[in-house]
Amino acid sequence: MILLQSHSRFLLQTLLNRVQNLEKSVELDYHWVEFDDVRYHVQVSMKNPHILLLSVSLPTPPRETFFLGGLPFGAIEAIKSAYGVIVQILDPPRDGFNLTLKLNLSKLSPDEEYRHALLVKVASVREVVLGAPLRVILKYLASRTIAPDIDRLVALVHRPNESFFLLPQQAEKVTAVFPMRFKDSIDTVLATSFLQEFVESRRTAGLHNAPPCLWSHSPPLELKGATDDALSANAGFVTFVIFPRHVEGKKLDRTVWNLSTFHAYVNYHVKCSEGFMHTRMRRRVESLIQALNRAKPDQEKTKKAAHTRSFKRLSLKESRTNSNS
Question: Where is this region: Disordered (predicted)?
């Protein structure tokens, strides 16, 4: 199975190209959308080629989630901690966006390795912003404490008008519950089968340290008190139990990213499975057509045989002789 990259490949390539050509006065104005309806806008003006403006639009949050100033809680602190002095947060952001960052590329370190790592982090702005609340809660889990002033059930946005839920009220574990929804009926069937196999794979050898995972058709008891819209899921509910060992040290970043993009991960493999089955079906149809074509009589030989026949014109006397015989 393939895990999604945490950074935007197009954004990273844009940043690398701009850094390599800082002395050239160019004008950039790029718009694009990536998975889960996260929109980006990059601008560079001719007057200030060292300044790059990066605007990000997040998925529309459902009513059960809490946004502060258009951003998840903890996002501002996470941005300042991740990027330091090269990034300035513009307030208010550009129209139609939740966040606008002003990057001063001239302040980048001359160390090529460190600079590349920082640009990758900038290209991972989606993870930094949307994963901020999850990161705050999991940091408390790593220290085996309970986050203060946190509700029993925390809703975090991960898709337009959809959320997943955390239960951070225990110092030794955090439970994450994902309602899985799909618009297409075929996708729903494939996702249900995929998730059942996904849960069963946890029992295989070598995965005993992975977070425990459960799947059910009905909402788990942990979601008691959630809204009816949040409890509607045509592909069931997936529950992960995260322990401190899953968020220690460098494992924290990977756990935050995997949880915040779990639905995109499932959807990616569902589409791959659907594409694979379509390919198998097309190949099967092509093989059947070839078999039918081989079963047809050879029209060319039939026509050739008909054209090579010759007939001898008999005289009236010869025809009478043949009829009498």
Answer: 296-325
Domain extent at residue 94: 9-274
Considering only CA atoms, which of 196, 177, 162, 183 is closest in space to residue 267? 183
Strands (E) in the chain, as ranges, are 28-34, 38-44, 51-57, 67-68, 71-72, 87-89, 99-104, 154-159, 162-170, 173-179, 213-216, 237-242
Q: How far apart are CA 217 and CA 74, in angstroms?
A: 33
Q: What's the CA gap between 260 and 130, in Å, rounded?
A: 7
Scanning 218-296, the segments in alpha helix (DSSP H) are 251-260, 262-295
CA 63, CA 229: separation in Å to the nearest integer?
10
Find how far residue 266's CA is from the centre of its chain. Answer: 8
Report the predicted TM-score, pTM, of the whole model to 2 decimal places: 0.75
Q: Is residue 285 part of a domain?
A: no
Q: How many separate domains does the chain show? A: 1
Q: Is residue 19 in some structural domain?
A: yes
Q: What is the pLDDT of residues 74-114, one digit of tens each?
A: 889 999 988 888 899 998 899 989 999 999 988 888 888 88
